[in-house]
Amino acid sequence: MISVSIVAMLALITVVSLNSTQKTEELNTAARQLAGDIRSMQARAMSAQNVKTCVSISGDSAVCENGTAVCSGSCDPVSPPAYGLHLAAGSANYILFANVNPDTGGYKYGNSHELVLQRDLLANSANVIIYQILSSRPIGVSSRPYGDMTFLRQSGTTHLFDDLTPPEPSGMVIRLKHLTASTTVDIQVDQSTGRVSIL
User: Fold this and answer.
1) Which of 2, 67, 97, 147 has its Cα between 20 and 30 A from that of 160?
2) Of 174, 170, 93, whose CA–CA distance to 134 is shortest?
């Protein structure tokens, strides 16, 4: 009887440990994916990679790589002035964009016409969210409701934006959180060097 109880306790400990390991791996996978997408957008900007665009029905430029429903004309490749990511606190996804309308929003995400891809942090799950977006300024670090990071064509110069810009923050930390495990991981982007680090 005692040996059965010991086996049952060991089985329970193993299940709890595997569940915790799975949640940690989900969080780390989401962090690696987001960091990889940041680096990918940097690379697209530095290589001046083209994106298919058209003139939209409303008259501005629109990315048409995923369809031409908003187009009033042909869909042609152009090299946008910048590529970037748009992140919102509390969201389980983020937006990769091509800055095809820099005159209307600067180098920030303007609207859905600039969307290249909306990506979930974790496929088929909302267990991982963008918990906080922390912006660094000379006066200190503050949590912001959204953050944009943009990389200029060919130079790869990094620009960071939030609801307090200007001035631009010197760095941005995106804190991801696993909702069921209550664990977090940080991704840091340095404005001056463009370096991306998982902390």
Assistant:
1) 67
2) 174
Q: Which residues pair with 142 in a beta bridge?
A: 135
Q: Which long-range contacts (CB under 8 A, 24 or more apart) does 35-38 make?
A: 35/187, 35/196, 35/197, 35/198, 37/85, 37/94, 37/96, 37/119, 38/85, 38/149, 38/187, 38/189, 38/196
Q: What are the CA-CA distances from residue 111 to residues 63, 75, 88, 114 (Å)?
A: 11, 18, 14, 6
Hey, where are the domains in the chain? 2-46+81-198
Structure tokens given for 73:
């004309």
**Fold adopted by 2-46+81-198:** minor pseudopilin epsh fold (3.55.40)
Q: Which amino acid is at 167?
A: P
CB-based contact 128:121 (threshold 8 Å): yes
Threshold 0.85, pTM exceeds = yes
- Three-state secondary structure call for residue 43: helix
Closest CA to 70 of 88, 86, 46, 53: 53
Note the pLDDT of residue 68. Answer: 82
Question: Tokens 């990071």 — which residue?
Answer: 149
- pLDDT digit string, tens, across residues 60-98: 999 998 888 889 989 999 999 999 999 999 999 999 999
